Description:
Blueprint: H1 3-32, H2 34-37, H3 46-53, H4 57-69, E1 74-76, E2 81-83, H5 86-92, H6 102-112, H7 115-124, H8 135-157, H9 162-169, E3 173-177, H10 183-191, E4 196-201, H11 204-217, E5 222-226, E6 238-244, H12 253-263, E7 264-275, H13 287-306, H14 317-327, E8 331-335, E9 343-349
Parallel strand pairs: 3-4, 3-6, 4-5, 6-7
Antiparallel strand pairs: 1-2, 7-9, 8-9
Helix pairs in contact: 1-6, 3-4, 6-8, 8-10
Amino acid sequence: MDKEKVKDFADRVYRDMAGAMAIGMGYLGQKTGLFRALADGRPTTARALAERTGLAPRYVEEWCAGMAAAGWLAHDAEAGTFRLPEEHAFLLASEGTDHFMGGLFLAGPSLLALAPRLARAFREGGGVPPEAFDADWLEAVDLMNGGAYRERLASYWLGQLPEAKARLEAGGRALDLGCGVGEAAIALARAFPASRVLGIDPDGRAIERARRAGEAAGLANLSFLEGTVEALPAEARFDLVLLLDCLHDLAAPEETLAAIRRHLAPGGTLFVMEPRSGDRIADNANPLGVTYYGFSLFHCTTQSLARGGPGLGTCAGPRRITELLTGAGFTGVRPLPIKSFTNMFFAASA
């Protein structure tokens, strides 16, 4: 046995554990407003920060020390102060933007809390059903994707599909299948006021939030429905169907895609966004790939298996996604040249 390799691997395990603890401290920073309180970048003592936020001083002191040790906060030992660098605030204190990373901090603890149930599924089969995931997970998904939907969907992303965009501008119909809390559907309805937009999701909690958000936005051309594609009237036809970050989650992907194809209007478009991954494990041997494999185990794969699905997983890869689309009878299946570090995009027609 090579003792140096043992040491190197032990160091890796400790680094990974440190990362998990940093995400936990990130959760606290997001939930308590500490990152927002530090967004101005000015140095502050832990006690002054506690007074400003109304939080318990001893907890804030330990949090500041931990975040400084992790390299998230800058620490001036002589002055006894902490500050959030501008470049860090860009990612940690920018909620609502397309570059905010705070959703990851809610996702980590939410998913890891289900580890005992997942371990049982390893032994007994089945999975962790969608209703087992807590409100923090819904919030995490919204924080991870919502900013991009608001800032990029109707402009940059659909700019790659000029015909679909023109149809919506002229009063076409759009369907957001697996709409979650409704951010993408709201963005479409706001950008294309002449269109009619429907969001569908089987999670009643998500639909409740989507409806509240839609009402707050005052969009008369927007509606939400709890259910799956089977809930649509047989005659319903759409010029654009969105499958955003959910094809790999489906319990019946082939059947769902076949149903979507039946509901596309002539010349209509299916727009698919999936997590960016490669077709080989070696392609995903990087921090993003490891994160996605974790998301896959703790959410995407297990909730699909819990409903009798195939558990495609977060890292299904472009080849598998393309095979699913062509196997369902779609034509013109093609990747879209949309720049994104975290996602990949496809378009298809009936």
